[in-house]
Amino acid sequence: MQQAFDTLINSFIESKVGISENFLSSQLSNDLKENLLHLHSEKSMLAAGTGNQPLVNQDKSVRGDIIYWLDRQHNNAHENAFFDVMDAFVAYLNQSCYTGITGYEFHYTLYETGSFYKKHLDQFRNNDSRQYSMIIYLNAGWLPADGGQLSIYHANGDAQQVDPSSGKTVFFKSSELEHEVQLTNKPRLSITGWLKR
Ligand SMILES: O=C(O)CCC(=O)C(=O)O
Ligand SMILES: [Fe+2]
Predict the structure, then answer these.
(1) Keywords on this record (predicted)?
(2) Which of 47, 61, 112, 132 is the most buried (most CB within 10 A)?
(3) Whose CA is nearest to atom 10 of ligand 1?
(4) Is the CB of 139 inside a 6 Å radius of any atom of ligand 1?
């Protein structure tokens, strides 16, 4: 596990976008994907909003994903195994980088065919608790023609394209990097979350 943590943290330090190809085991990625598909089949996944106001704005022209928040209270073995990995990662990050992270939040995410998320920053205007964004992709055999790339816009004008392939985890500062999910031509599955202070 520590090797995947180092890969993620070192690539983040080097280029502002951390990427690890095996942050979760393929077994755990698969189990979480099955959870997501089950939640979807029982219609538990709901339209995501933008912003954190009580009246969340569900504007499909900005963001078309549907989500379901993970929670230890669900007593789901795979969800809890995911939180165990995150607890170990946060402890390692705080110890090695003095990040002072005190919490996190994660949701399952499904972008159905034809959906996208326009360019945005993850930190809310009225609340700066989100420090780091993390996305863990759960899509086996993703092809460039499937679309759905994560585009990350660097301050020097570079646009970095990330394929949402299974096992890949992306990590960046929530307040700094604008990013966008390109229109997907296939259902696109992930876990998305934020480390908070
Ligand atoms: O799924 C992704 O690649 C990015 C998702 C995202 O930007 C978000 O949920 O804020
Ligand atoms: Fe985002």
Answers:
(1) Dioxygenase, Iron, Metal-binding, Oxidoreductase, Vitamin C
(2) 132
(3) 122
(4) no
